[in-house]
Design brief:
elongated, five-stranded antiparallel beta sheet, about 325 residues, eight-stranded antiparallel beta sheet, alpha+beta
Length: about 325
């Protein structure tokens, strides 16, 4: 009897103990479950972030410039290695088949070679050393100078990359450069299109007389300019324009094989040249004697038919 009572007491005691531990076990199970869910959520978030990052990278890689010719800023980490001041810190960026190359005119002929990479790699066998071109730059006062220029491969826009240089002292130096702010050049500066179809005085039904028209000039370093609007005369359907340059140092112009001399002796150079049409970039060559050695520079002049007015009497 006593034994049965004792056994019953043990059973009841065990039941009470299990009952008291059940909430704790339940809470523990809930905590484990919550932690597992939290870990899964964190992993999903990381996966999503990685996916978004990969997408962003793919978008950045796909965001390349279309083939064409651009102007772009060329920044360096050196006051001795930079674009010539005549070119306002800019070079000509060419994109072809997704590959980019920028041509920059430097400040002198003291830098004789470049290498895309480090100075150490430039001295290794098989290094692709960039050779210079001889460029003519024209300053705002009409003076010109011969300097070295380089065609530099560009791996990416808005990202620094290594360029090593060697000068007349035969020592390589490391530098960082970056190409930024590309702006595509107008198609009119490359070729005549339907939008720039040439029209003649006859097409415009211009009578004999004196007129003015806005004229846009492109070419050279971008520093030189011509007076706009320009005066022109129509006689028997032929147009002769008076073109005044922003410098007195131009001593002749070429249109095709024909050579034209200035019509004035004092002040900025003025030429009277034939104009075979309006609304298209007419190719001309102007020779400057600002330096001891004359230089012929290619330009285009585009006379705007929409701006034609009769000249003041």
């Amino acid at each position: 009897m006593k034994r049965s009572v004792a056994m019953m007491a043990c059973v009841l005691s065990g039941a009470l103990m299990i009952g008291s531990y059940s909430p704790v076990l339940a809470e523990g199970a809930k905590a484990v479950s919550a932690k597992s869910a939290e870990q899964e959520t964190t992993e999903e978030t990381k996966t999503d972030e990685s996916s978004e990052s990969a997408k962003a990278d793919d978008t950045a890689k796909g965001d390349v410039l279309e083939d064409g010719v651009y102007t772009a800023e060329f920044d360096t980490d050196s006051s001795m290695f930079h674009v010539n001041e005549a070119n306002d810190g800019k070079g000509e960026l060419t994109v072809k088949d997704g590959k980019m190359t920028i041509h920059v005119s430097l400040n002198s002929k003291k830098i004789v070679n470049l290498f895309v990479g480090t100075a150490e790699d430039a001295q290794k066998d098989g290094a692709e050393i960039l050779e210079p071109t001889t460029d003519t730059v024209t300053y705002s006062d009409g003076m010109t100078d011969e300097v070295y220029g380089f065609d530099i491969p560009v791996p990416a826009i808005d990202e620094e990359f290594d360029v090593a240089l060697i000068g007349t002292k035969d020592k390589w130096y490391d530098h960082k450069v970056k190409v930024t702010n590309p702006e595509k050049k107008s198609d009119a500066s490359v070729e005549t299109t339907e939008d720039t179809k040439k029209v003649t005085a006859e097409d415009l039904k211009l009578k004999d007389g004196d007129y003015t028209a806005e004229v846009k000039m492109e070419g050279g370093s971008g520093k030189a300019s011509v007076t706009s609007p320009a005066k022109f005369t129509v006689k028997d359907g032929e147009v002769t324009a008076s073109v005044e340059w922003s410098s007195p140092y131009y001593d002749y112009m070429l249109i095709g094989d024909e050579k034209y001399e200035p019509v004035n002796e004092d002040g900025n150079s003025v030429f009277e040249i034939p104009v075979d049409g309006f609304d298209y970039p007419m190719e001309v060559v102007a020779d400057t004697v600002a330096m001891s050695t004359p230089h012929e520079i290619e330009y285009t002049l585009q006379f705007d038919s929409a701006s034609i007015k009769e000249a003041d009497k």
